[in-house]
Amino acid sequence: IIDINMGCPAKKVCNKAAGSALLKDEVLVREILQAVVAAVNVPVTLKIRTGWDRENKNGIAVAKIAEDAGIVALAVHGRTRADLYMGEAEYDTIAAIKQAVSIPVLANGDIDSPQKAKAVLAATGADGLLIGRAAQGRPWIFREIEHYLRTGEQLPAPSLLEVERILLEHLAALHAFYGDVMGVRIARKHVSWYLATLPGAREFRAQFNRLDSTDAQCTNVREFFSERHNNGEGVAA
Length: 237
Description:
The protein has helices at 11-14, 26-39, 59-69, 92-100, 114-124, 141-151, 160-195, 201-208, 214-230; strands at 2-6, 44-49, 73-77, 105-108, 128-130. By secondary structure, it is α/β, with parallel strands linked by helices.
C-alpha cells in the first residue's frame, strides 16, 4: 500500500505545509489524494487528525474528500494538530467520521492496553485500531489486545527470556536494515524503551549509549539480562 500521513503534528513538518498542516487546505488535500490514487496501482490509505485545532475540526469533511478521491481506508488520531500529544485523545469525532463514510476507519490515540482497545472500538465503531507510542518497547501489546478481544482474558506479561529474545531480534533487524552506523544509533532509543521498567535500566542506558558497534550492543544486552536472570527476576513489568 501507499499510506499518506496528514496526521503528523511536528513543527518541522507542518512548517513545510506537510503532515497535519494540510488539514488547513481541503482543496490541496483533494488534489494530492486524487493525484496519488491515479498514479499508482496499489491501495492508497490516509491518516489524519480530527482537525487543525479545536475550533477547526474538519475531520468529517476531509474523510469525505478522501473517500471520494479513492482512498481505501482512513486512520484518525483523536487529537487536533494543535493538541500535539497533550491531554487525552477524544473519540466522538472518530465515531462521527465512521458514520459519515463507508470506507474502513481505524481509530488512533492513547490506546495503551487491551481494556482501552476494547473501549475505543466500542465508543467509535471503528473497523480497527492503530497503536503508536504504546508499542514502543512493548511489541507484544498487539497479541495482548487480540487475545483480550477474543477471550476477555488478560495474557500474562512476557518472561524476561522472551523479552531478551525479542529485543535481540529487533536489534539484529535494525542493524541489518539501517547499517552499522545508523543502526547502532537508532537501536539506543529502542533498547531504552524495552528496558524502561526493569531495575537498573537507567544506569545501563548511560553505558549502552556510549557503545558504537553492533556486537558490543548485543553483548551488552545479553549481559544485562543475564544479571536479571541471576537475580531471580523472571517476568517483565
